[in-house]
């Protein structure tokens, strides 16, 4: 049975499911809402301190999050640096009324988008571990600083992605000696929004989010 809800908020979507795509990314699927006037769905992802953020609006009933990847390492112990990600949905009808969120689904993944660093190291003391710190200032406009530490000679990348998984900036892509580094990200050519930055150094991966406000 399908229902018509004139001038009423749509029902919250149900049946959201998550699996692994052929490309090794989280893949979301869900059944259509009962109301005939639903024209799109908002896919949201939990972004830590930023709460739930919208990834996309789509008329489809599926979504692949290319900013996250499942770990395929052998042995599996190399997957310990992964993290949990969570998703939920909202339905939007032809009157632009938005439903309450669906129940959330989660999965354990290796990490988000890779990042590359550009900047000079401060090598007075060799770091004991790899680290990626929160950018500062945050929120920012138009420039912000990202610091990270490298504990051993590593091939390092630092990239910036938007929330749809599109690479928007490549900050570093080179081999680095042990030390502490800083890189400045200038987002003057980008629109306001939340972006993802990821550090890859040998087997280490870390991601964080930053907010550009213009």
Automatic annotation (TrEMBL):
Domain of life where this protein originates: Bacteria
Domain Secretion system C-terminal sorting: 136-211
Pfam families: Por_Secre_tail
Protein name: 5'-Nucleotidase domain protein
Protein species of origin: Ignavibacterium album (strain DSM 19864 / JCM 16511 / NBRC 101810 / Mat9-16)
């Amino acid at each position: 049975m399908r229902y018509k809800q004139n001038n009423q908020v749509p029902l919250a979507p149900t049946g959201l499911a998550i699996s692994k795509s052929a490309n090794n990314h989280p893949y979301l699927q869900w059944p259509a809402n009962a109301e005939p006037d639903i024209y799109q769905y908002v896919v949201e992802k939990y972004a830590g301190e930023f709460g739930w953020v919208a990834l996309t609006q789509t008329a489809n009933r599926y979504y692949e999050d290319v900013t996250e990847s499942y770990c395929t390492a052998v042995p599996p112990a190399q997957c310990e640096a992964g993290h949990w990600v969570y998703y939920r949905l909202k339905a939007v009808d032809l009157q632009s009324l938005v439903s309450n969120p669906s129940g959330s689904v989660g999965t354990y993944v290796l990490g988000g988008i890779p990042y590359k660093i550009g900047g000079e190291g401060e090598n007075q003391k060799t770091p004991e571990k790899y680290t990626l710190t929160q950018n500062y200032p945050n929120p920012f406009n138009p420039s912000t600083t990202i610091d990270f530490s490298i504990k051993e000679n590593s091939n390092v990348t630092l990239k910036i992605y938007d929330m749809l998984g599109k690479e928007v900036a490549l900050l570093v892509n080179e081999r680095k000696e042990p030390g502490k580094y800083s890189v400045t990200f200038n987002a003057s050519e980008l629109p306001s929004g939340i972006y993802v930055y990821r550090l890859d150094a040998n087997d280490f991966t870390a991601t964080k989010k930053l907010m550009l406000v213009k």
